[in-house]
Amino acid sequence: MRRYFAPLVMVSVVAGQLAAQSAVVIRTGPLLDGRGGSRPAATVTVFGSKIASVTEASEAAATYDLSRYTVLPGLIDGHDHIGWYFNKSGRFHSGKDGETVADETLAAAGNAYTTLLAGWTTVASPGASADAPLRASIARGIVLGPRLLTSLQPLSDERLTPDSIRALVRRRKDEGADFIKIFASASIRDGGKQTWSDEQLRAGCGEARSLGLRTMVHAHSADAVRAATNAGCTQIEHGIFVTQTELDLMAQKGTYFDPQCGLVFHNYLDNRARYDGIGNYNAVGFASMEQALPMAANVIRMASRTPHLKLVFGTDAVAGAHGRNAEELACRVREAGQDAMAAIVSATSLNAEALGLGNEIGTIAAGMQADIIAVDGDPVRDITALGRVVFVMQGGKVYKHP
Ligand SMILES: [Zn+2]
After folding, report:
1. What superfamily in CATH does domain 2-73+362-400 come from?
2. Tell me: the pLDDT tens digits for 263-316?
């Protein structure tokens, strides 16, 4: 027991108001630290919202005995449309379809809870203005959900001048955006051609960088990916038409790359009747997504073999996909041949780094936020184990346990 008193005493000295809290002791089975390291068993001690220590496995009494499970950091989805949902008629909610703000709010809160219980303790939404109150409500603990980062409303208008782009970036920062989302190309359903010029991209990504904000750029065509990378944007999304040239360029510039493998496409195709006829969800759009599937796996196969490329993880979860986020990791390993541990690291410590939170989340180590999950099985051998989450702790609070 002495081991557990040590952090308690230390923390009580530095923060008297925490002295009433007691340590939570977790006995783990295999422990994956989120940085590629593992040990066969361990004891993780949590104090307040943080991990106080990770020590040898012990027979001492534990608050949670997870010795039958694999324990790893809470998962991080870098691209999640947390507010998207199907309306009362079972159709994708878009525009004026009779839904009220209350309907939208409750649906988003439901998505957030579903996502948290599936083991995703942090997500980045790129984005919607309604993310701001959702983010605040989750932070206050009145809605249960993943720690939420958002770009608020994305920047996409092709007619914006460089000056108006810079002004919009500053406005998003004032409105509380955690990062800036930019559309540099059309949707995959519209061919994915570059829509913002090199000059517009330099204005958007340059202004954001000067304000200390990261940029997440939607880009499908090779041209758009090259332009955004050369403009110094932080992270490129999708990139379905990239070649080895763009992958090498991103690796050289240190640009994070977030391609999707399968969940977003399968989810649209599985739910075709719920989307069909809305905007670019039409025959051409669905055919494009069907054709994208083998290309998507191939992009990830090439990306995961590109030296020094920072291949991060985002599902692009939309209506119908919330809580199924781990299927995207399974696709990466099974369809695209990514190493399972590398896939897990992409959704934990590497994603944390990409979000600018590398010193807080994504790793199980002393001093980090206590975002800890347990899964039934060994995800290094069977990646689908990440879909069997039995324990969820976020910021030291337990939301699910066996
Ligand atoms: Zn998206």
Report:
1. Urease, subunit C, domain 1 (2.30.40.10)
2. 999 999 999 999 999 999 999 999 999 999 999 999 999 999 999 999 999 999
252-268 pLDDT, tens digit per residue, is 999 999 999 999 999 99
Buried b vs exposed e over 184-212: b needs ≥16 C-beta within 10 Å? bbbbbbeebebbbebebbbbbbbbbbeee
For residue 325, how far is its CA from the centre of ligand 1 (angstroms)? Answer: 13
Cα(129) to centroid(ligand 1), Å = 15
State the distance from the centre of ligand 1 to the C-alpha of 183, rounded, in angstroms.
Answer: 10
More confident of the two residues 203 and 5: 203
Interval between CA 65 and ligand 1 midpoint (Å): 38
Q: How far is the CA of 186 from the centre of ligand 1 (A)?
A: 12
Could you tell me the residue ranges of all domains in the chain? 2-73+362-400, 75-354
CA of 152 to the centre of ligand 1 (A): 13
3 state SS of 162: helix
C-alpha of residue 64 to centroid of ligand 1, in Å: 37
d(CA 156, CA 139): 29
Taking the whole predicted model, whether its pTM rises above 0.85 is answered as yes
Q: Give the DSSP letter string of 166-191.
A: HHHHHHHHHHT-SEEEEE-B--GGGT
Q: How far is the CA of 316 from the centre of ligand 1 (A)?
A: 5
Strands 75-77 and 70-73: unpaired
| CA 126–ligand 1 middle distance (angstroms) | 6
Cα gap 33→371, rounded to integer Å: 11
- CATH superfamily for domain 75-354: Metal-dependent hydrolases (3.20.20.140)
Q: According to the model, what pLDDT value does residue 340 have?
A: 98
Distance, CA 387 to ligand 1 centroid (Å)? 22
